[in-house]
Each structure stands twice: as structure tokens, then as C-alpha cells.
What we know:
Layout: E1 2-11, E2 14-25, E3 30-34, H1 39-42, H2 44-53, E4 63-69, H3 81-91, E5 104-106, E6 109-110, E7 116-117, H4 122-131, E8 136-140, H5 144-147, E9 154-158, H6 161-168, H7 201-213, E10 217-220, H8 227-234, H9 243-255, E11 271-272, H10 280-284, E12 285-286, E13 291-292, H11 294-297, E14 302-305, H12 313-317, H13 320-325, E15 327-332, E16 335-340, E17 344-349, H14 368-375, H15 380-384, E18 388-391, H16 397-400, H17 409-426, H18 441-447, H19 452-465, H20 469-485, H21 493-500
Parallel strand pairs: 3-4, 5-8, 8-9, 10-17, 10-18, 11-14, 14-17
Antiparallel strand pairs: 1-2, 2-4, 6-7, 12-13, 15-16
Helix pairs in contact: 2-3, 7-17, 7-20, 19-21, 20-21
Amino acid sequence: MIAKVKSMAVVGLDSFPVEVEVDISKGLPALNIVGLPDKAVEESKERVRSAIKNSNANFPTSRITVNLAPADLKKAGPAYDLAIALGILLASGQVAKESITKHDLFVGELALDGRLRHINGTLPIALGAKEKGYQNIYIPSVNGVEASLVEDIKIIPLDNLNELVLHLKEEKIIKPFHSTYTLQTESFVSDYDFCYIKGQEQAKRALEIAASGGHNILMSGPPGSGKTLLAKSFVTILPELDKKEILEVTKIFSVAGMLPPETPLISQRPFRNPHHTASNIAMVGGGAWPRPGEISLAHRGVLFLDEFPEFPRSVLEALRQPLEDGVVTVSRAQGTLTFPANFILLASQNPCPCGYLNDPQKQCLCTPTQIIRYQKRISGPLLDRIDLHIEVPRVGWEKLSKDDLEESSEGVRKRVNEARKVQAKRFNKSFKSKTNSDMTPQEIKNYCLLNKESMALLKSALTQFNLSARSYHKILKLARTIADLAKSEQIKTNHLAEALQYRPKENRY
């Protein structure tokens, strides 16, 4: 007898329907799985056999063939266990085939005693099920809240295989899962705050501009000047995620298997801080079957690279395409996948190997050759993709010893939110742009108009500093953000002048 059960495969961040076909025929007892299964799917033989035996059901002593169609789509992970086990029960006549419909979907990993374990990628599966027209999705109960984020689809939570059998036999009906959990935006909760950062007014101003327009920023300064503290406080001034962004970020973390067990979704902007020994694959994504890397996990949030020049050259150069396009394409022999990677790059570095180049109080011990070699670890094309370059100098005793608190992150975030509202209104009909840093050349032409005086200033700067065409556009984007913070419809000369001062300066030693 042949039975067919619907399941779902997660490839990258998308999901695709999989039909689990089970055939029981005469022959020596065996269970074979075909259809490009990986090792985890192959091992489901033993999990399914034990789960069926321990769920008050009989495992057929015949030849069983399981086909996962389409056969040219690679199947990875243990989420097909539930569909395979149900297919065997249907094909062996222990459950009536009429008890399931073409609108039912089954996903879940089985334990040896028949319990259902947590699976990764539940949110993409639920979104794909809704898109493909499925009405009922049977999943482990621990994944119920995550799946319930998708509306207009019935979630049937399961604790074990025996529950499913009794439900399909209508002996013990399982009620659909109804969650009171809603998509709610939350501000970033942190022990860090701008009010505890003494001095560094210019750096805090630059971070406010970066948060308002989604611009990348590089901080340079001696050890202990506060670069890491500024970076960790940066997320506290970012605007809250909207509902669409929450689903985008949660989808990535769900596929990566990094959703916190106590929460079904990511409601705060991600802050990723990989160590400088991180590999290319860890940063960009990849593996035998590509998974999201750090730059995708930082989507709609912050990627903080401390000790920027210490990262391997190949890792830093891999950031070029994501910084420009907002996505990263990972190509492997099995196929090519595209992951979102629209993040704010926040990097910090010392000006030289010892860290004290141009420090007024401590002498630099590095030779010019060492300084040049250290600074050349970051290529010119990568530096050109960073909007704001700022110096973070040593903080003096007078500022450190002050008891008065500085302006809090909440006050700065209010200004950032106001600037973001202006941009949301500006780009409400745009498919790509959400912030000024995302503007296309056509949008720059429309929204970054300059008067004659500003044009003359920009022309002089381009000639004097030999700026590239990319730098020209980034200066205009930055000036547009500064104007938005000043609640000005026009980009004025002082806005442009401030934007120009954030371009990288020539090193002198």
C-alpha cells in the first residue's frame, strides 16, 4: 500500500513543500529512504522505528520505501520524522487515509519514546504553509507560539506521536493552539546608556547620525578611550523594530536555531559582536548546506567589529558586497542562496599597533613601516564604504571626575525616531529604501538638492580630497540625515560641512 503525507523543507530562509511517499511491499524487513536525504534524515529510520513501537502501534515487518519528493531537492534535518512515521501508519492501515486531507502539513522530530522535540525553522515553515494554501499544520507543541505568529492558519500542537494517532482516529481531539502572544516592539534593554559616557561629545553626535540614517561608522582611538562602551551603548539609541522587521529577524534566527527558548521571536534589534578570529564562513554564512552567518544575524541591527584591523583580510573583504547591496549571496556546489544582510557596521580600531599614535600624553613606539602595514590591513574600497570616520580621543580627568550624568539614551533615541519618521514618509513608496543610507542614485537626485553655495563647497572638497563617486553619494546621504535631525527640508551648507568632516583624514606621523 502507498500513503502520502505533506511536509515542508527549509532551504535558506525559504520553505518548499515536500511530499513524503511511503510504500509497504513484500520482501525482507527493511526501511529505505530516498530523495536526497542528509545524514540526519537517514538516521530517522531508527527514531521512527522506536517511536512507533513505543506509541502503542506496530512497526510493519515488511519492506518499507520512503520517497521524499521532489527528489532533486536536498532534504536536511530531523523535521521529516513525524511525516515519515505517519506515512508508515497510514500505509500499514493503522490509521485511516481519510483522516488527513491535502490541506494538512506535518513537521516534527521524534524522540525514541514518541515525544516530539523542538525543530528549527518553524516560522519559515508556517509562512510557507500559508503561502502554499495549507490550512492545518501539525507541529511540536514547543514550537506552537512561534508558528502562531502567522495568522490565518490552524496550529495543531503535539506532545507525542500517540496523541496524533488518537486525534486522527477522533478518539481524543486536540484543540488548535491559540496564543495570546502578539508582535510587540521593544526598546533594547541594556545596562549601558549614553548618560554614563563622560565626554566624547563628537563621537556621540556621530553615533546619533549613524542611528538616524542607518550609516556605517568607524571609530579610531587609543586603548581605553571608550570605543567599546560607545559601541555597546549604540543599540540603546536605535529605533524599535516594526512588525515586518520583527518577522524578518525572527525568521533568520529560527533557521539558524538561535531563537531563545523562552521567547518565540526577536523583538529587539540584534547586536552581533564576533571575535576577530571568526572565520569567513562564520561571518558570511555557509557550511555543507549554507546557513546564515554573523552578517545575516545582524540584519536590521548592528554588527560590531572590535579590533577591526585584526580580522583576517578575506573576512573583511567579504563585507564589501553586503555593505553595498544589503544582501549576501553564498554559492556552494549544492546551490546558491541569498540571505538578507542589511545592518549597520560599527567598527573600532587603534590608530597603530601600540595604540598611541598622535596621543598627546603617551608616546607612540611604532615605526612608520609598522604603522603603514597595520593601517593597510583595511583596504581602501572597504574604508570607502564606511560613512563616518571619527576620532575617539583620551578623556581627561576633568570630565571623568564629574558627578553629573550626561544626556541619556532615551533623549537621543527620541531625536533618532523623529528623523526616522521623516525618512519613512519620504520613502513610503520605495521598495528598497527605508533609511537615507539605502537611497538609490535616483532618490539621491530627488531628495539631496543643494544650493549654489553648497555645490561650490562640495566641488572644492571633491577636488581637494580626491573623493570617489561613492564618497560623493555617501556625503550627500549623510548631509540628508543631518538635515533631517535638524528638521530642515533643505540641505544647508552647515549640514554639508558637518558631513564632510566625517570623511577619513590623511594620517600624519
